[in-house]
Amino acid sequence: MWREVRDREAGKILPSLFTSRVRSRRVAALQLSNRKEIVSPHRGAVNSIQVDLTEGRYLLSGSSDASVAIYDIQQASDYDEYGLIAKHRSLVAVDKHHEQGHKFAISSAIWYPIDTGLFVTGSYDHDIKVWDTNTSQAIMEYKMPGKVYGTAMSSIATTHMLIAAGSADVQVRLCDIASGAFTHTLSGHRDGVMTLEWSSSSEWVLMTGGCDGAIRFWDIRRAGCFLVLDQLRSQLGRRPAFSKHSLKNANAERMTPGKNSAKAPPSHKRVPSGSVMKNLNNSNKRQSLPRGSATQRLHPGMSSSLNRATAHYGAVTGLKSTKDGMYLISSGSDSRLRLWDVESGCNTLVNFEAMRLQTSKPLQLAISHDSSLVFVPCMSSVKAYHVWSGVTFQTLRGHYESVNCCYFNCHDQEIYTGSNDRKVLVWSPFSPAVTEMVRSHIDISVIIVCDNRKNQILDVFKINVL
Amino acid sequence: MATEMGNEMSPPGAVTTPRLIEKATNSTAQEVDPRILKAIKSATRFSDEEIRAAVDALMDQMKKPHSQVRYLAVLIVDELFMRSKLFRSHFVVNLDQFLSLSVGFRKNLPLPPPSAIATNLRSKSIELLEKWNVSFGIHYKQLRLGFDYLKDTLRYQFPNRLENAARLQQERRERHLRTMQILLNKFEYLKENFTSIKSDIQSTVDEIGECLEIANAKEENGFEFPVDGDEVEEFNSLTLRQIRLESLREGEKVQENSENKAIFDALRESHKLLITKHMSSVQEWISILVRVDATDNKFRDTALKEFIDLRNLIQSLKKKCTDLGIILDPSIKQKEDEDLWEEGKIEDYKPECTTASTSTTEDFLTKPANQENENTASVESEPSVDNFVSSITDREKLLAEAPVLTWSPFMLDKCAAQSGVLANQRGLEIEGHWGRVDPDAMIPAEKIAELNFHCTVYKEQPVEIRPCLAPLKKGGLCQRRDLKVCPFHGPITPRDNNGNPIEQGFRTVVSDSQPSQEVGELTGKESFTEAIYLKTEQSDLQDSLCPGKEVIEQLAKQAVKNVHQRDREAKALKRAKLAKIRKHNEEVLRDSAIASTSYSELFAEHTVEAALHGNGAGVKVKKTTLASMLKKKVTAKDRIARRLLGSRATDASSRQVTLGEDSKYREAFPNQW
């Protein structure tokens, strides 16, 4: 490591390369953190976890006992008697006894992506509430037609501020914080919507996974969905770098910027199940297009609602797109993980090794900073898979009951997991030097460069000084 | 070099630990075989590879569907866990799996049979988890998580050793603090009242001193004891001189008479006060001063010093009093009381045993008797020594013929008899239970005398009533026990073993007339030998008179030998017979066992086994295996049921059973049909 530091100083390697190497190394050394402990005030299963996107400092967790809590994960509230274990207690906790609190389990709790002044909770009592963090008062409330399974806000949106909410109802609703009203009602799913994810490349694209096993892509500027993922339409591995077709598509995109719908028309037709190869697909699409429009004179956007393609057998329980927004990972109640090419809408046929997933609840997946590892809650453990090969990289064992959610904090390379056993666990890179030093109670202030952000180092220092 | 060795050895080395672990867990014992355990420990010390292999092997053992295997594995895990850091760090990763296998907290993964050992396994692993958490929890998050989960979420009961110990400690500390506080309070009290306490004691001491002075002065004036040197010369021996000296000393003692009775009474009173009240209070204050940790050390030291002085003074006074022969009854009474109490306890254990009671009475009679003796000696010693010696023998004689009294609580409580006794001042707090208590209630002296009246109940001497022993028609002897006349066989006469009456008159005549040897033969071996010895002694005495002395001696020896031999032979015969009978019985039992059904074969095996175990024989016993633990034990009840239901009895018995059930049902639920 010191050699790399020297190389970076000498200019032999790029700073970004250095950073990513250090990060990867740290991610590879993840294990249950002994020094950092989140003291969960929850009395029920932890269903949702998120660290705020602006500072990367405040962890929000929602639980089945209708409580939400916020922790400071950088600054410990207190230490144990030996100064070895940093305990992070909740800064804010809202539970059932709060006058505006939820009545039933909270299924999702998310931060307002712009700052930490607001957060949003969705609950089984059919309500979505927007909270002011500083006063811990609900400032807005949306009544949904059914139990709320999931909420999502786009982190890259600049022109809208919509909360996408999936509920036991078939319709996905978009709630506008500015007006306090539903702006969109997206219908297409045939069953409740378990999970939602905004695209990380386009602020207008929303992806939803339903209990009917379908994953639908919506462009919120248009009516209806423009893509339904079909598990039988597949391609082998990653998309070839530059094919003629993709070049053409790229050109089309450049001509109509932000218009993803340019690719949409081919996909909203039902695709023959036997078609595997991409060019075959294309020819089929061309054949089926005039016939479909001829038989049913539907609104072009609504035609996809007839598409009954499924992405999973059973319900889709979790969705996570890669950082670049090119790929989507989905988990289903069929205990499968699938990697989808968003551009082509194909199943990439990556075989993720055997796993067993919880079926009844939405799962929150996490993906590492460079999109090389995906963390999946598999019953009482969390498994890390290589995204491109599907090989199990690591199994994080520590929870005693099913894990519901995990979140990867890319600043500190830490993972937070919430489980049915009411705990929130921190998984952090193992650093033997630090633990040894603390254990022997030698008060040496050594600067260990492990991150280009200062947070981690600061943390280590505090412990040593104590 | 060492590492090379390790590397070389590692392929076989990696094999040893799992094999050892497997061997250790394949046992039905409650503990891991200590030798194998030691071998495992030394093997794991060999290299890190071994420890990794041990972790894997132990987890494999934990997965086996047998609680005994798991139990032993848990014990091994504990041994290694407490010793090796590497083992801990490897083991802790799979802790949730380990716990689900050892505690069985997952519903879909219950602990395997046998159930008794499964519960054992659960409690043991919970206990161990607590221990690990206490000692290593801070270094391993997994341990804390597992502990918290079992404790807080699943609400398992942990033995909570540490907390209990802490609580005990806390309690002890509190008690100590409380006692210190009490001591301090007393100390403060003493500080305030020191002078008054001291003066109180001092006044009593002074009183005694004055009394003694007066008494002594009176003695000197009034009573002149004849002390002359003439008679001394008559006694030469040392012992006699000593006796004289003693008697002289005794003579110096002041005797109580009508003149100085008042003084003596006063003296006695104040002495009693001094001994009972002041002495004990001084002792108490000293102990308090020693124990208290007050800030005022100066006062404490001076007070302590003064109290010790006081105690010495009191002791010297007491000594003076006893030296001067003032027999202060109360103190002696007290002593006797104490003695009596202890002796009484012993008597309680064996009330029947007369010898014991005499010895005990003797014990507590000695003290007053001694003193009495001294007194009598002092008075009577002057005339002659014989008298003195005789007095001692007298005492023994008297003791020998003194009646044995059963112990009673008021037996020697004479002081109480003189004056009344406060009824409610016996130290027992009886307040409040039955209404108001009068603390000044007196038991009058005559009442006490009445209560002390010693009465004895006539006890019949147990007489052994001999059985009639007349021969019966159906064989055997009559076992009726009557005093004089048996209603069936007339007056009771002594009879021999066959029931034939022995004529007593004849016998006595014979025993008189026959030579002693024959009598011996008749009555028994012991008397026979005795007779011979007697004879030899006689012959020894009159050696010159008897010519055939050696012959007689030889004869006697021969006779003794014969008797001994006969004795031995008879015993050996008896033993042989018994052994034969036992052997036969065993054989019969075994035969019958082998001959009977397969069910009882198992049973027979058990009995043989048991017998073998009992004899401590090293015959190879069929080892109980793990599989046998899983098998359900066939009890006698099962066997009977099987047999009942098995053969021709099936129909009838089943009908009977159902009938019985039916009637029972009817009885239990009379209004439900």
UniProtKB/TrEMBL annotation, chain A:
Extent of the WD repeats: 39-81, 99-141, 186-221, 309-350, 396-428
Spans annotated as Disordered: 243-305
Keyword Glycoprotein: no
Cross-referenced SMART domains: WD40
A single BP term in Gene Ontology: DNA repair
Keyword vocabulary terms for this entry: DNA damage, DNA repair, Repeat, WD repeat
Residue stretches of biased makeup (Polar residues): 276-287
Protein name from the UniProt record: Uncharacterized protein
Organism of origin: Dendrobium thyrsiflorum (Pinecone-like raceme dendrobium)
Taxonomic lineage from the root: Eukaryota, Viridiplantae, Streptophyta, Embryophyta, Tracheophyta
Automatic annotation (TrEMBL), chain B:
Ranges for domain UV-stimulated scaffold protein A C-terminal: 401-503
Origin superkingdom: Eukaryota
InterPro entries per the UniProt record, alphabetical: ENTH_VHS (IPR008942), UVSSA (IPR018610), UVSSA_C (IPR049431), UVSSA_N_a-solenoid_rpt (IPR049408)
Keyword annotations from UniProtKB, A to Z: Chromosome, Coiled coil, DNA damage, DNA repair, Metal-binding, Zinc, Zinc-finger
Annotated Pfam families: DUF2043, UVSSA_N
Claim: DNA damage is one of the keywords in the record: yes
GO terms under biological process: DNA repair
A GO molecular-function annotation: zinc ion binding
Gene3D superfamilies (alphabetical): 1.25.40.90
GO cellular component: chromosome
Subcellular location: Chromosome
Family the entry assigns: Belongs to the UVSSA family.
Name of the protein in its database record: UV-stimulated scaffold protein A C-terminal domain-containing protein
Record organism: Dendrobium thyrsiflorum (Pinecone-like raceme dendrobium)
